[in-house]
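Postdoc handover notes: sequence design on the structure in folder B. Input tokens:
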């Protein structure tokens, strides 16, 4: 009966509870699909499988299969993974589930004879999770597997971490390894994927020994790229997260003066006005990007800087979108040096995929609404970084006389002993504020207005004056520090983000990480109040700068015989007040999880 209802590609309608005759599978896959999901209810007349329309014969709904398959949680996990492309007719073509055969075999297999509560796959997934949480290395994991095999000879388990990783990659969400030029000029990717030398500096792609390639090809650097599209599709694969991906359209603040999610901000709202077609489907994804460097070896005496680029999804509620399990690692940039001005070279795969997600999108199954398929698009709203990482991403140098990206060429600054100082903060006050006439700040009355606001047109005009430099670190190919012209201001490059079609329309392109700023300001403030010799900003050089500016004469250094005396400032604690402050800090208590125990940072003698 089934033969006439197999299409010319060998596929047949699936009457399981999830597919509901809307998806088709190959005959060899149909049995396992029905076995996992059971028959759909109400399908009494098998009109899709050869039964005449006049027939009244009922169908028997399969009883639950019981055993390990009925209770194992991994069935739901695999079901969500496979169902991402279950609706072949809607997406535009069939897909076979042959790649999941090994996973289903491990899922049907009992971990140990007589143990039906754990499948082999379930145990392996939990074991790999423990490995990540407790930072086991691969060797210790292999030794643990050997011990389990020795203690339980009949256990159904893989032999090594390599085999476990190979099996886990079939669950999706893997990564691509992209080789990088040793001087950071180019990626051996796409048109360069088959080349053995860098197209710019002609350095070998591989590590050489005595001028010759070693027995096995070992690249100098490897960039790990984690594709964004499959991870976004996975968020819509389960009904729970698929519903949460719509939160931003209904959970925004009703008070215009209150902002509890980026959707309440002006930048988001202006973007929606400029791109109404994108904003029309609330399932389209809004992303934020963060990047920073870290030392993977945990040994600060060993200089090594590896950078990670992380994406967060702003469709989700604020109490979820910043949780670790919802942050998506997209790039892992190798060291040993920071990418710096060459950051755009490493961002290339991510930018290309973001352009694809904006222009064409991805066919995605929405588990929240009857598994319907829609065309998901995505946009990058902004970046969030500390000041140094912002320089690498935006192209505006965070050093020199004009390091403020907001004030731009109007940054008020001066050179003091050993560093740059930025003044003119009274210009942000109302024009009639009495502090504007206070001479104690810099000895002058402030009459200037706040810095002008630079429009997108102004910024693009500045970027057109920037000379295109060659990336990389080779001294013969642009890898030397280039002196900028006066007309280039502090621009080092035009950022690769401007290749995104919508980037010029974004009002707030780069955000500063408040956590870094708050910590640095708090450390400096407390260090100055407590007169900490290591953290105080009230140094001898600062007092000499006051003398040069001719202000605050009561704080100037003076000589007493052969000694240089530093007058005590009103803004520092006396010894008695310092002890009172320390006792107060020691007595402060916070709710669990709100803050660390501050009393641990106070010495026993309250000093």
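Designed sequence:
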């Amino acid at each position: 009966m089934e033969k006439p209802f197999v299409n010319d590609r060998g596929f047949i309608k699936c009457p399981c509870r999830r597919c509901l005759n809307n998806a088709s599978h190959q005959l060899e896959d149909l049995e396992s699909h029905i076995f996992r999901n059971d028959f759909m209810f109400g399908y009494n007349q098998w009109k899709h499988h050869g039964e005449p329309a006049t027939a009244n014969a009922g169908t028997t709904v399969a009883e639950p299969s019981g055993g390990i398959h009925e209770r194992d949680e991994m069935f739901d996990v695999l079901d969500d993974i496979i169902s991402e492309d279950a609706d072949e007719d809607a997406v535009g073509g069939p897909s076979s589930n042959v790649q999941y055969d090994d996973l289903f075999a491990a899922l049907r297999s009992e971990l140990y004879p007589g143990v039906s509560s754990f499948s082999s796959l379930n145990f392996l997934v939990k074991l790999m999770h423990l490995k990540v949480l407790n930072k086991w290395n691969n060797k210790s994991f292999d030794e643990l597997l050997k011990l389990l095999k020795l203690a339980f000879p009949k256990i159904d388990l893989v032999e090594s971490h390599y085999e476990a990783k190979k099996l886990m990659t079939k669950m999706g969400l893997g990564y691509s390894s992209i080789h990088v030029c040793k001087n950071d000029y180019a990626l051996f990717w796409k048109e360069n994927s088959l080349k053995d030398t860098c197209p710019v500096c002609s350095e070998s792609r591989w590590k050489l020994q005595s001028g010759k390639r070693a027995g096995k090809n070992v690249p100098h650097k490897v960039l790990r790229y984690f594709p964004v599209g499959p991870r976004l599709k996975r968020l819509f694969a389960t009904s729970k997260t698929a519903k949460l991906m719509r939160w931003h359209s209904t959970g925004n603040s009703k008070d215009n003066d209150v902002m509890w999610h980026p959707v309440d901000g002006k930048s988001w709202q202006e973007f929606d006005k400029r791109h109404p077609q994108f904003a029309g489907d609330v399932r389209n994804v809004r992303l934020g990007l963060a990047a920073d460097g870290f030392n993977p070896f945990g040994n600060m005496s060993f200089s090594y800087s590896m950078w990670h680029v992380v994406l967060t999804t702003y469709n989700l509620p604020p109490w979820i979108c910043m949780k670790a399990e919802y942050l998506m690692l997209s790039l892992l940039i190798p060291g040993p040096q920071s990418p710096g001005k060459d950051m755009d070279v490493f961002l290339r795969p991510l930018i290309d995929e973001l352009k694809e997600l904006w222009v064409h999108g991805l066919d995605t199954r929405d588990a929240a609404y009857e598994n319907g398929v829609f065309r998901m698009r995505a946009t990058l709203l902004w970046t969030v970084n500390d000041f140094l990482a912002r320089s690498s991403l935006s192209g505006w140098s965070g050093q020199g006389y004009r390091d403020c990206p907001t004030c731009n060429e109007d940054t008020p600054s001066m050179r003091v002993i050993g560093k740059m100082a930025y003044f003119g903060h009274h210009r942000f006050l109302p024009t009639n504020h009495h502090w504007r006439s206070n001479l104690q700040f810099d000895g002058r009355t402030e009459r200037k207005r706040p810095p002008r606001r630079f429009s997108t047109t102004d910024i693009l005009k500045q970027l057109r004056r920037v000379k295109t430099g060659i990336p990389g670190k080779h001294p013969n190919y642009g890898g030397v520090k280039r002196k900028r012209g006066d007309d280039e201001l502090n621009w080092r490059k035009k950022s690769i983000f401007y290749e995104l079609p919508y980037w010029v329309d974004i009002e707030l392109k780069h955000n500063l990480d408040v956590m870094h700023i708050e910590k640095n300001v708090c450390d400096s403030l407390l260090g100055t109040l407590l007169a900490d010799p290591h953290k105080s900003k009230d140094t001898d050089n600062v007092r000499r700068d006051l003398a040069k500016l001719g202000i605050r004469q009561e704080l100037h250094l003076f000589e007493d015989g052969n000694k240089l005396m530093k007058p005590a400032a009103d803004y520092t604690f006396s010894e008695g007040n310092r002890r009172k402050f320390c006792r107060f800090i020691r007595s402060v208590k916070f709710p669990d999880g709100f803050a660390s125990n501050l009393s641990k940072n106070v010495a026993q003698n309250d000093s």
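Context for whoever picks this up: Residues 187 and 414 are 41 Å apart (CA to CA). Don't rerun without checking with the PI first.
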